């Protein structure tokens, strides 16, 4: 069911869209900025945009504030070809997320504004309005579970997707600043993982759910044995271990000269899923996802830096192979 759903190349993505600001030119500190690059942000929106760049279809389910920032995000979704039929405008004190991050590695600063985040207002009614039967798979990132009504709405979306036969793809994406406490996050993210068919996270995120980073790999292995068909345990510069079909697959990374640390996880997910949707083996899909992550950290922006299929092929042709596996 998992690969069959992904092979439909039509995804419903639940979660936030936002605006990213980064000082220009690359390397500039925010405190010294006189010019900013503006781009779409938000993990779910970035994943959706990345999938569309690979020729897939993607629809976003979320809320945005009914103001200039929300309208900008709507326009960016249109620009990338992401369906926004289920993006609802809201009025009130809630605001669309804003991220200010530097295109630099040394002493990198990212400042995220998510007080009264508009996307947390996504409701059960919003997700119940979706016709899940027209999609092949559901994707979400962990931040969507950090507060209600978004948390309850997403668990309801899981129920509806499962009833429609869709596999559930979960990027753990733990952001401490969004949660009321670490204890709540551990409980809720673990519940979401137990309901998912594909789980992607890094060593710190799996370690967090397991109660210690030294237990993260065992947690990922246990999730693959009990619940998920595919679990990807990312280890940063040391590559990844993927649990699928009773195998443990070790893969490396594609070294590049990074200009920023942000956006790699979203690009990995888009490249990984797009590759699976084309019928590639799990190991090859993970490697292509890793290549996408390397491409994004080597360029300014997140959504703008995500590669198309030809750009990925060009990158792979220029790199003899991954290292660190």
Describe the structure.
This protein has a domain at about 1-15 and about 45-60 and about 125-320: Ribokinase (UDP-N-acetylmuramoyl-L-alanine:D-glutamate ligase, 3-Layer(aba) Sandwich), CATH 3.40.1190. With about 325 residues, it is of the alpha/beta class. About 50% of the residues are buried. The chain is globular and about 50 Å long. Strand 12 (about 240-245) and strand 13 (about 245-250) form a beta hairpin. Helix content is about 35%, strand content about 20%. The strands form two sheets. It has a nine-stranded mixed sheet, sandwiched between helices. Strands 3-2-6-7 form a four-stranded mixed sheet.
Short description:
With about 325 residues, the chain is an alpha/beta fold.
């Amino acid at each position: 069911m998992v690969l069959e759903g992904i092979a439909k190349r039509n995804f419903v993505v639940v979660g936030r869209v936002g605006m990213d600001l980064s000082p220009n030119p690359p390397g500039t500190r925010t405190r010294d900025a006189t010019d900013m690059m503006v781009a779409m942000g938000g993990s779910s929106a970035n994943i959706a945009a990345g999938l569309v760049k690979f020729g897939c279809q993607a629809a976003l389910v979320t809320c945005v504030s009914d103001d200039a920032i929300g309208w900008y995000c709507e326009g960016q979704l249109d620009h990338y070809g992401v369906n926004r039929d289920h993006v609802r405008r809201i009025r009130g004190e809630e605001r669309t997320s804003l991220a200010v991050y530097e295109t630099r590695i040394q002493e990198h600063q990212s400042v995220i504004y998510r007080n009264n985040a508009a996307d947390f207002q996504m409701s059960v009614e919003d997700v119940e309005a979706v016709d899940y039967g027209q999609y092949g798979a559901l994707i979400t990132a962990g931040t969507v579970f950090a507060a209600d009504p978004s948390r309850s709405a997403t668990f309801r979306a899981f129920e509806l997707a499962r009833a429609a036969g869709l596999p559930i793809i979960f990027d753990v994406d733990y952001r401490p600043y969004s949660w009321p406490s670490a204890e709540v996050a551990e409980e809720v993210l673990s519940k979401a993982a137990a309901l998912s068919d594909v789980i992607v996270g890094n060593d710190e995120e799996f370690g967090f759910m397991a109660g210690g980073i030294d237990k993260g790999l065992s947690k990922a292995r246990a999730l693959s044995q009990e619940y998920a068909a595919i679990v990807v345990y990312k280890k940063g510069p040391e590559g990844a271990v993927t649990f699928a079909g009773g195998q443990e697959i070790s893969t490396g990374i594609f070294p590049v000269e990074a200009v920023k640390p942000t956006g790699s996880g979203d690009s990995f997910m888009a490249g990984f899923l797009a590759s699976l949707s084309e019928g590639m083996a799990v190991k090859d899909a993970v490697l292509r996802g890793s290549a996408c992550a390397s491409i994004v950290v080597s360029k300014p922006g997140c959504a703008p830096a995500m590669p198309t299929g030809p750009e990925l092929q060009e990158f792979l042709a220029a790199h003899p192979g991954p290292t660190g596996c």
